[in-house]
Amino acid sequence: MHCDRRQATLWRRGDGEEWIVRDFVGAAEIPLRLTTAPIPLDELYAPLDLER
After folding, report:
1. What is the pLDDT of residue 24?
2. Nearest alpha-carbon partner for 27 in 15, 12, 44, 11
3. 6 Cβ neighbours under 8 A, 6+ residues apart
4. In this structure, how many other beta carbons lie within 10 angstroms of the beta carbon of residue 18?
5. Which DSSP helix (H) or strand (E) runs through 8?
6. How far is the C-alpha of 24 from the C-alpha of 45, rounded, in Å?
7. Closest to 2 (Cα-Cα) out of 19, 26, 31, 37
8. Is 39 exposed, middle or buried (0-12, 13-18, 19+ CB in 10 A)?
């Protein structure tokens, strides 16, 4: 999560030793394995009043 812009970086393990890195920006939704639905960046950043 970035505190000065609406962006989150998701790091996860791929097959084997490699890491898969994805950036989510603006109104994107972050897919997490622990949740049944993706988490919208709109909800995470709502209290900060940052532009998309």
Report:
1. 92
2. 44
3. 25, 26, 27, 41, 45, 50, 51, 52
4. 8
5. strand 7-13
6. 12
7. 26
8. middle
- What does the alpha-carbon distance between residue 38 and residue 8 come to, in Å, rounded to a whole number? 13
Cβ partners under 8 Å of residue 45, min gap 6: 6
Residue pair 22/9 in contact (Cβ under 8 Å)? The answer is: yes
The predicted-structure confidence for 1-52, as pLDDT tens digits, reads as follows 766 778 889 998 988 889 999 999 888 898 888 888 898 888 877 777 666 5
At 11 the pLDDT is 92
Does this model's pTM top 0.85? My answer is no
